[in-house]
Amino acid sequence: MPLLGIAGKNLHEYNLSEINMAQPQWSETGAESPLGTGFNAVEVGLDEASGNTTGGGNRDGQLGRSLNGYGEEQPGGLHGWPRDGERNGFLTRCANSRCDAGWLRFWRRRRSPIFEGGWCCSERCTRALVSDAVSREMRARGSGIERHRHRIPLGLLMIERGWINGKQLQEALKKQRSAGAGKLGHWLVRQGSIDEPTVTRAVGTQWGCPVLTVESHNPEALTSIMPRLFLDAFGALPLRVASGKILYLGFEDRLDPALALAVERMTGLKVESGLVQDSVFRAAHARILNAPFPRVKLVDATPEPAIAATLTRTIEQAHALDSRLVRVHDCLWLRMWLRRQEGSIPEVNDVRDVIYSAGGS
User: Fold this and answer.
1) What does the pLDDT look like over 303-335, one tens digit per residue?
2) What does the domain layout of the chain look like in residue ranges?
3) Is 219-289 assigned to CATH 3.40.50.300?
4) 89 with 82: CB under 8 angstroms?
5) Rounded to two decimals, what is the model's pTM?
């Protein structure tokens, strides 16, 4: 079953030869891989590679408040930061509401892991929280469904705006049919009927979104926003973060609300999506794909109990200061923060990602 079916790209067809392969373990101590055995796992050293949706998040800039994307407040702040009044963390209770141990952090030497803002007093409690999160995400179908199902055809829109005439549209459509490939805008530009910026403006009007620029784009500073695989497979381009609160996310010819929602929930940043002119997008996209990314594991393990078990072992062995799980199309994306995040974007080496197959949507 295709792992990235919505994107039209099967993860098993993803060309891993384009990036350098890391050592088969995360741990520098030589400990066994947290994924154990019995799973088809590939660890990719993306940090060594040459290479307007709404949702939950920390939109008010306060570290003490975090939402899980469904309107439920999490026990702690985003990325494990304690809430106001709990700065020392000594009196934090186990986040598992079904925990029967009654442990307070004051009585435990165990300080981590943290999962979705909540401290787990034992591996069993981590497993309970992770199992709930896996079930939540596996059942969260349609949360990012594209809502522009009845858009005005691009050619008619441009005729209505007076940017082209009917004859030019018919000529472009004829060439498109004859070639059997290429977007309408490409053929209109190629035959000289319109310029590329105007085509991008027209597509933006179709989607009801702005046209974004790559001004002051710094690829190396944005690669920890999401895994390299998502940028490549879903055609996304992080452009900049404004005031430490708003992430501008660019796309080439169509928005991806599901991806934008997942990034918003994972990072706590308000995501504003828009289109970028084709030629500008391709050049900037190539640059960011060649920058260093956080390390990621790709795992094909579809049964929910298996996913929950391997996620738990991974989080436990990493001693994550915080970790979070969100769904992106047919994938479950786990991110672990290994060091405290000082700014709005973590350092590449401070986070690690795991991407699991979630089956078909």
Assistant:
1) 889 899 999 999 999 999 999 999 999 899 999
2) 154-207, 219-289
3) no
4) yes
5) 0.71
